[in-house]
Write a structure and sequence with these properties.
8 strands, 3-stranded parallel sheet, single chain, alpha/beta
């Protein structure tokens, strides 16, 4: 068995797909550098990411599956599920080796796996767009700390860039240790500088909040309570639409967290 070792990046995956066709090696085991374990019986090949090769695969996928299919492929990659790399790899081989239309053959295990992974990521994207709550820093920057189940920050950039186009903001993913920062014109990826071990990213970002932020939080909670109709409370339905794992980021749910609801 030939093992392709790549850096775990999206462009690295596309480069690996290119190399499999260039080398005519189709029965390949794909693994990230960080997960690789050498075996006496396997032949390993280190794939060096090359954007030119990756772009050729990316454009080829567009011709085969269209823009929507491309987006589905990328969303599935962002799911970060252990088996998704292999599914993406064999899915690409499958669509390149068959006529257009085969990408919708859900009887194929890889086509189905990609569709299911992409759907989960798409759902998480919409939840993040709905549940992100910004807090104003004393320097005027609006910040939010999140920990989504999947790596959706690249997908939510356009939404927040359009919605908050007139103010600088930062959304930081504390699980993946990076954020997206908008300066009023462009969006870029950022990482936090080193911090004391006892502090989390959430603590660091909370430390410099604007003096009026607590007042804004109180006003928002008062508004939320005043518009709530207690007689129509449906906890089961509420948890279905607003899962408990998101509550720590919602200003209007701080009271519920304190009560252990």
């Amino acid at each position: 068995m030939v093992i392709y070792i790549f850096d775990g990046s999206f462009w690295g995956l596309l480069t690996a797909i290119f190399e499999s066709f260039a080398r005519k090696e189709y029965e390949v085991k794909l693994t990230e550098e960080s997960r690789f374990e050498a075996s006496f019986f396997d032949t390993s090949v280190r794939i060096h990411t090359e954007r030119e090769k990756a772009n050729r695969v990316w454009l080829g996928l567009q011709k085969k599956v269209g823009t929507e299919g491309q987006q589905q492929f990328y969303k599935a990659f962002l799911s970060e599920q252990p088996a998704v790399f292999k599914s993406l790899f064999t899915y690409a081989q499958y669509v390149f080796c068959n006529p257009a239309g085969f990408a919708e053959n859900y009887g194929n295990a890889d086509v189905l796996a990609i569709a299911q992974a992409a759907q989960k990521v798409h759902r998480e994207k919409h939840r993040m767009e709905a549940f992100v709550r910004f807090k104003k820093h004393r320097n005027g920057l609006f910040m939010a700390v999140v920990a989504p189940d999947f790596n959706v920050l690249p997908l939510i950039c356009p939404h927040f860039k359009d919605r908050y186009a007139d103010q600088p903001w930062l959304i930081y993913d504390e699980r993946r240790k990076y954020g997206i920062y908008y300066n009023g014109s462009t969006v870029c990826e950022v990482v936090l500088a080193s911090k004391p071990r006892a502090l989390t990213e959430h603590d660091v970002l909370e430390a410099g909040l604007d003096g009026h932020e607590q007042l804004y939080a109180t006003l928002w909670n008062d508004y939320f309570r005043s518009t709530n109709i207690a007689e129509r409370k449906n906890k089961k339905l509420h948890l279905q639409h607003v899962p408990r794992r998101y509550w720590r980021y919602l200003t209007e749910k701080t009271d519920d967290l304190g009560l252990g609801l």
